[in-house]
Design goal:
Layout (H helix, E strand, L loop, with lengths): L1 H6 L2 E4 L9 H7 L2 E3 L7 E7 L7 H4 L4 E10 L6 E9 L13 E18 L4 E3 L11 E8 L13 E6 L3 E3 L1 H4 L3
Parallel strand pairs: 1-10
Antiparallel strand pairs: 1-3, 2-3, 3-4, 4-5, 5-6, 6-7, 6-8, 8-9
Length: 178
């Protein structure tokens, strides 16, 4: 549910009319997926999260945040967790005041975390997202946790969710109002 809530407010920076990109802003708002390592996938994006989103008390009124979902090792190599990091987009100008991302372990004992992206051009699910200035229109997640005895769950015990992404475009005019 946390992933779905985060994706519900996704925003990204659009190219300007001359088709030039402001690299600094694109970097702040880019949708980044690193799914080539099947055991340690991650996705990162900017979202305007709902008021009741995990960690909202720590960020005050800053609802626009970079959200990262990553798979990390626990104390042993067999113990992996799904972890979420949040960083406010509106950071202080003074670099010495930059905050470290806040970390939440969403699921220890992770067995499977699979992310796929819908290709509107090929009409198939893709294992990797390589488009630099866009976000996927749909994402498919599969997540499963190890059983109490440490064994892998059966396929029927894997949680599956397909999410349609509705997004807000952050234009140059919105970034630099008159």
């Amino acid at each position: 549910r946390t992933i779905e809530d985060a994706l519900s407010g996704i925003v990204y920076y659009a190219q300007n009319e001359q088709n030039e990109q402001n690299e600094q802003n694109q970097e702040h708002y880019a949708f980044v997926a690193d799914t080539l390592d099947f055991n340690y996938p991650s996705i990162s994006f900017v979202s305007r999260v709902p008021p009741d989103f995990i960690g909202s008390k720590e960020f005050g009124t800053q609802s626009l945040r970079r959200i990262d979902f990553v798979v990390e090792d626990g104390e042993t190599l067999e113990d992996r967790s799904l972890v979420m990091y949040q960083t406010p987009i509106l950071q202080p100008v003074d670099v010495s005041e930059l905050e470290e991302p806040k970390r939440w372990v969403l699921g220890p004992g992770l067995d499977t975390f699979l992310v796929q992206f819908w290709s509107t051009s090929d009409l198939i699910w893709m294992p990797d997202w390589e488009e630099t200035n866009s976000i996927p229109s749909r994402l498919k997640f599969e997540i499963a946790f190890k059983l109490q005895d440490g064994s892998s769950p059966h396929y029927t015990e894997t949680h599956k969710r397909e999410i349609v992404v509705f997004s807000d475009t952050i234009t140059q005019a919105m970034q630099n109002p008159k």
